[in-house]
Each structure stands twice: as C-alpha cells, then as structure tokens.
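Box 3.1. Reading complex inputs
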Amino acid sequence: MIKGNFIDNLPKVYGIYTGGFLAFIIIMSIAEQMGMTAKTIGICFVAFTVAIYAIIGYLSRTAQADAYYVAGRQVPTVFNGMATAADWMSGASFVAMAGGIYFKGYGYMALLVGWTGGYVLVASLLAPYLRKFGCYTVPDFIGTRYGGNLSRFMAVVVLTVASFTYVTAQINATGTIASVALDIPFQYAVYVGLISILLCSMLGGMRGVTWTQVAQYIVLIIAYLLPVFWISNKMGAGFFPHFMLADEVARIGELEQQYGFVKNAAADLKTVPKGLAGITKAHSAVNATPWAFISLALAMMMGTASLPHVMMRYFTTPSVKAARKSVGWSLFFIFLLYSSAPMLATLSKLSLIDPSLPTGIIGKSIAEVQSIDWYQNWNQANLMFVSDFNGNGTLELNEFFMGGKAVVLATPEIAGLPYVISGLVAAGGMAAAMSTADGLILAIANAISHDVYYKIIDPKAETAKRLVVARVLLVVIGFAGATIAALEIQGILGSVIWAFDFAMSGLFFPLVLGVWWKRANKEGAIAGMFLGLVSGAAYLIWVRTGGSGFLGITQLTFGIFGSAVSLVSMVVVSLMTQAPNAATQKMVDNVRVPAGKSVI
Amino acid sequence: MSKQEQHWEKTRGLLFMTLAIWFVFSIGIFLFGAEMNEVGGPFGYPLTYWFTCQGSLGIFVILIFWFANRQEKIDEEFGFSERGDD
C-alpha cells in the first residue's frame, strides 16, 4: 500500500482524510445539538483520532531496515514538512504556549523566536549535509565522521539524556489529556497514552511515524486555528485575527494601566492553589532585559539544531535538495500555529479582563463570578481561582488566578463556543503530544538499536534480528518514560526547555564542526560531547540547589554555558591531537557536494 | 583552485549571508526591544511585539526558502546538483 502508488496519491489520500475529519466534526456538532453529553463527545474525539493513527501505524508495518529507520527515503518535501511540524510541536506548544504568553508576555515570546529561528541553523548548517551523509541516526553521523566506538557511544548518551528528558513531558501530556477526555485517573491514563503512542511506531518504525505524524498535524492545526478564528469573530475582534488585533492589544494595555499591577501579600498568595498564576506582567510591552530575551532565544535555537528527533526527519527525504526545501516547509507549518498563539492569548485575556465585554469578570462582584458555570467547571478542574484579598467584594485583576493550560482549554468555553470545540481541542492536544513522543522514543530506540547494538555489539546481526531489538527497545523506553511521567516531577514546559539545553550542550558543536571544520577530530569531538554535557548538567544542578549562576545564565539557558565549554574543549583538544586522516578528510569533502552517492 | 574548492567557497559565502540575516532578526533587533516597541509596526501592533508574534517568524520562513534556492543555483553552477526531481 505504501509503495510507489501511495506516494503519488498522497495529496488525494490526505485530502480525503482531512475531509473525513471535518465531516466528523460536523457530525459531532449535530450530535451535540441532539443532546449528546460533553463527556461522550470528548471520548469520541480522542478515541476516533487515536484509532485512525493506529490503523495508519498498522498499514505502514515493515520488515525492511531502510523503511524502519528512514521511511525508505522517499517522503516528499511538503509532507515531510508536515510530519516535522507535528514531530516538533509538542503538547507544550499546543497546550502551554498561549498560556505562557498570556502570563509572561514579551519575556516568554523569546521561545517563539527561538523555536522558529533554530530552523535557519538546521537548514543552513546541518540538515542537507547529514542527508547526503546517508546515516540512519544522528550518532551514526558522529560515529562515522569521527570514527571509533567511544564517539558513537557518547553521542548516544547525549541523545538519550536530551530526548528522554523531553519524552517524559510528552507522555505526561498525553496522560493529562486522556485522563480529562476519558475521565480516568492520571496514573492509568499515562499508560493509555503510551499504548496509543506505541501503536503508531511499533510496526512501521519511521515509516509508520511519518504517515501518522502527517495525519496528526492535520488534526492539531485544525484544532488550534478553528477556535482562534471562531472566538475572534464571535468577539467582533476581526475575521482574520492575525492582522486585526491591534486595537485589542492596545485596549489590554489601557486596562493594565487602569488596574495597575498590585502586588499580593505572600500570605494571600499561599491560599492560591499550586500551579495557578495571576496577570503580573504587561501584555505587549517589553518586560525583559535584552540579554534575558536573547539568551533564551539563542539557547532554544541552538537546541533546535541539536535535537536528534528533528534532524532525523530530514534523513527521510528523497534528496539533499529536498531536505533543504523540507526545512522551509516544516517552519511554514510551525509558523501557522506559533503565529496564532499570541492572538489566542490576546483574545483570551481581553475577554476576561475587559468589563465592557459580556465575558469580562474583572470588576464584577466575587459572588457573581463564583456563580458562573464555566468558572465553576474550571475551578473544579483546578485551573481557575478567585479570592477577595482586599475584602471589597469586587474582583480585582490581582485577585484572579488561572492555570497556563486554561488559555487553550477554557477560552472556547468562556467565549461560548459549543462543546464540540473543546472535544476538538482535546484531540489536537493529544495529536501534538503523541506525535512528538513518537519521534522522541523512536530517536532513542533507533540510536540504541542501530548504534549500540548493531554497530558496536553485534555488527553481523541480520535485519530481522535488528528490527526485533529495535522494537523491544521502543517498548522498554516507552514504559520507562511513562513510569517517570506518572511520578509528575517537573511541569510540562520546564523539562521541555531542559531537553534543548542538554542537546545543545553535548551535540551542537560536534555536529556543526563535523561538517564545517575538517580539522575536527575524534579526540576533540569526544571531549566536546563529554565536557559539554557534564558542565551543562553541573551548572543546572548548581543553580537548582541555590547557586547564584553567572552572566545571567539561568536554569532555562544552561546550554549556553555547556555549549561554550563544548566548543572550547573541542577546538583545543582537536588542535592538540593529530589531524584526521586522508580518508576522513575525503569523506568531509564528499559530504559537502550534494551530487553522487551517499557517504555510507 | 579546484572546482570543489570554489563551490565550497561560494557555499560558505551564502552561509555567512544567511546567518547574518538570521542574526539580525533573532538577536540584533532585540538589543533595542524597548526603544523599537515605541514605534508602530505593521497592522498597528507595537513594532517589537509584532516581530516576536509574526515578523521574525515569517522572515525565517522566507529566509530558508531563499537560502535553499540560492544553494541550488550554486550547486547547478558547478554541476554538483542531483539529478531527478524532489
């Protein structure tokens, strides 16, 4: 089904799929009119979409190494762009990003710039060259370019540390959504999420993940954009919010001036449930120092270019040329969602704080707010809270608290959209978290099965045996991730940002210099990966345990320190040891030319 | 200079140009974030705010496609481009 014919028919296949999904939304909204309960709609949305992904995963099953590791290297540019966008946009992007912008404004938007700007580095520094190289995994490049099992193994270690940090957050997100939509306890929901994730990747490896990710992108982008446009139109803010919210942004600024940002007493804040926050920062004004903004953006950009689950998506394109273009398409599809998040944050905030709007709650009496249906729902879900700190009976800006997830999850309900939209949003969040988790688990399992098992332990292993090992690892890593996710150590976003810092600490310079500096050698790369990762991790632990940090580098940007150490140690050690041999130099020359056979 | 060296020199030139543009819109302008935000930007948004929501993001998309096309031209010029379609 997947061969030849399927590739030619892709636009048709996914066109029908998109139409089918839209029809499903319409059927659900009719069912809602006819009295279907909110809970049933939620279950239908999540169950229906997950079932489709599982079917795609089954149809994509394969017994060939090339298909399992790199989807047969025949994924067309635009579709690989969609798959990468789904791979990239995690549960955090989908559920938490608009909330972050809502609460932190400018300082947080460094993440938007960082998570998109990184793709320029991917396109210009790495992706086309690694595609030409012809490797199956990122450590495969490191191991072959620099030579030796130790360099290969170090790359696997960095990849595992970074990706595993990331994947627990994603499994956590699938668990959160599954527990809300299916109404089951979180500890079980995590494993429901995990099984859904494994259904997509187990049988078909990269090929299965590719075609499910395209399907997941379509679901998540519809689920994100439809409510934004609908809310904007319903509020009368403009039919194309991205170009028309200037007045709303200005109005929020006026209201902020009028209310002022009153600081709450520490004793009062103690009564606010954990995880909820109030509006304490200006919406559109610059509220962070240039270095705070730039360092965060820079860390995210270099992290983007070092994360193996993104890089390996460009191994699946038919050519080097296609790999470059595909990066552009990826960013375009990401841009569609990222440019909408600030609009959603604006609409959400204005609808809550503007007393002249019917949904505005600031300035109303506390009792009145507490009697609103949606307030009661989200208060019960532990995502909203009001308290009359100053005892005047009226809700002030500093007396209203909300969870970051509520911006995406609750705004449709506040704006009075039908419940079918909330079901759609749950399906979108699930798609976002599942697609990223699949990419990450596959990246780890492939690196261990291909680089550690096949290349180091048993180079004579047959394909069938290699793929069994790969699949067993997939399940083991998935369960390990789910078990840790069930412990709920760090919030969704915190661990996502750490993953970027770990990846850039250990991998950015060994990857980039592998292509762009012929003199880089094995000893240098090992030193760069090892010292980079260790110093980055040490800095994180130091700051987390009360260390003051230096140069304004925080626990969110420790990768800047790690990668600086990595660069210096890699250059110094490379220059102190022997230059790479003629064969390696020739290999690098070969990588730099798109034409001809791949290097390995 | 061999054909391959010339090709690499041009490729490196394009890289530096791409990274320079990238630097301006990911880092450079945010050195002056506060001052720039006083100015009105496209569609009436404050300028820095607009760059963080749409401007820089959109410029990166265009930049990558521009880069990809330029690199293809360089590869073709030296006969290093791949045969076949993408």
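In summary: Chain A has a mean pLDDT of 88.
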